[in-house]
Amino acid sequence: MKILAYIFRIATTAVAAAVLLASLTSCDNAIYDDEGDCDVVYRLRFRYDMNMKFADAFSHEVKSVRLYAFDSEDKLVWQTEESGERLAEEGYDIILPLNPGDYKLMAWCGLDNEESFTVPQIDLGDTRDPLQCRLNRTQHPEDGAVSTEDLHALFHGTLEVNLPEDLDGGEYVYTMPLTKDTNVVRVVLQHLSGKDIEADDFSFKIEDNNGWLHHDNSLLDDENITYHAWSKYSGSAGVDVPNSTRAITDVKVAVAELTVSRLVQRDWTVNSKPMLTIRKVDDGELVARIPIIDYALLVKGNYNRDMSDQEYLDRQDEYNMTFFLDENNHWLSTTIIINSWRVVLNSGEL
Length: 350
Hints:
It is built from five helices and 23 strands. Residues 1-8, 10-26 and 28-36 have low confidence and may be disordered. A hairpin with a 5-residue loop joins β21 and β22. 13% of the residues lie in helices and 41% in strands. It is mainly beta and 350 residues long. The strands form five sheets. It has a six-stranded mixed beta sheet. Strands 17-18-13-21-22-23 form a six-stranded mixed beta sheet, with no helix packed on it. Strands 3-2-5-10-12 form a five-stranded antiparallel beta sheet, with no helix packed on it. The longest helix has 24 residues, at 2-25.
């Protein structure tokens, strides 16, 4: 009997030790709760390399993030927003407090305090459809809906993810690509005669119906928006002129800056082309009127001929256009410089 009791005690001790070992190594054990060794962590990072340098500029350009998560039934299950200096930190990410499963993530970035664009608030259980981004505008007696401000840089992103169930714990990192939806257009008027030119003598406008963006970043039907220049100034620069009696001459210029919402290539047989219009202020005489997307795409081939038109428009967020004026302030419509590329236009080319 003593031998049987001894064997029983040995067996009982072995079983207890096995149970203790299993409890110590379990992810549910309280010893590991604070350490998080067995937690599953899902992290979302952002990347803005949809630019002409093909380099991530998120930390330099994006100032705020509003992020949404929708389940497989397209219902909102979680949302968050963040802004400030932390977005500029290396390796910035957002932890997704979601259960394993399939999700559609969506972000509007750069809304800041909605000074330039507004996105409606939605509640848990809502679908993505209301998340439409609308340009803030005012009403002008002549131009209708207008935008006269330097718009805050706006970005859009979507990403479908599968968050796996990992009983052993682990960390999973996902990256959401962003597209920039605002563009700066800088217009330079240069006098060939060298006489003074005042920026305030001209009006600069861009007309487009691109003030309302769907949750997938496509354009929704909207009223026509007239973008006014938010900055105008005059200046001059000294340049060497070969074979001139003067070693240095001054080039007189007038500069205007406008910021517009996303430029989108469309079917121009059913849509009006976005137009850049320059007029004299005193009598309203037309100086230049051009289809801005057509002109912007004239130099696309100098960057990347394999790039689609829309990809070019999304990557290029700044357009510099120089028009040459004669002594009567009329545009010499044979030449224009676009983003440092000199374009010689044939009659009736566009």
